[in-house]
Write a structure and sequence with these properties.
The protein is an alpha+beta fold. The chain has a domain at about 5-130: Gcn5-related N-acetyltransferase (GNAT) (Aminopeptidase). The protein has helices at about 20-30, 30-35, 45-65, 110-125, 145-150; strands at about 5, 10, 65-75, 80-90, 95-105, 135-140, 155-165, 170-180. Strands 1-2-3-4-5-6-8-7 form an eight-stranded mixed beta sheet, with helices on both faces.
């Protein structure tokens, strides 16, 4: 799969993105992501960490176990402003994965994450990845994520109590899913 271009965005695989741009994106948003993300590995927002991490992410992408894309605006190439991933890919009778996303605080509320997410969902449900189901989770008080997932066609599954350890506590999460209406069983 090559990079994806949308009306305003370019989605790049881990082997196509600059490690320094990823490190800057993470550093800019450490405080912004803290209420929603599990504890980060030490040094995650450093160039050294990303130089080691991105090749591993690219390998997972090539193997089909985790598809991560970094997002740049077409009018600001080289500046990572979001990331999306389809992770924990389960084949066999499941044909499913987890869907996750994060956007730079300076780019919220502009419809950019929806544009990028629609491209990733199309890829996940398309012939290259061909999944039947995507699942996502958000803390109930995260209304931005809840609204985006609803606009993307995800429907509620239920509340998972103590789902993730975030910011010093086990946090409840609303689980949501989206099914691929055009799923065809992969040819063997």
């Amino acid at each position: 799969m090559t990079e994806y271009a949308c009306a305003r965005l370019r989605l790049r695989r881990p082997d196509q993105v600059n490690p320094a741009a990823v490190a800057r994106f993470l550093a800019r948003n450490t405080t912004h992501f803290a209420p929603w993300d599990p504890p980060r590995p030490a040094g995650l927002a450093t160039l050294e960490y990303q130089r080691e991490s991105l090749p591993l992410q690219a390998e997972a992408f090539a193997q089909g176990s985790c598809y991560r894309w970094y997002v740049e605006r077409l009018d600001a190439p080289g500046v990572v402003m979001a990331k999306l991933e389809v992770s924990g890919v389960s084949r066999g009778p499941h044909q499913s994965a987890f869907f996750g996303f994060a956007i730079d605080h300076a780019h919220e509320g502009q419809g950019l994450m929806r544009e990028a997410a629609e491209a990733v969902i199309a890829a996940a449900f398309g012939p290259a990845i061909q999944l039947h189901r995507l699942q996502a989770a958000h803390q109930p008080q995260n209304q931005r994520s809840a609204g985006l997932l609803q606009r993307l066609g995800f429907t509620p599954i239920g509340l998972a109590r103590g789902y993730l350890f975030i910011n010093g506590e086990w946090r409840d999460h609303q689980l949501v899913e989206r099914l691929n209406p055009s799923f065809a069983w992969p040819a063997t």
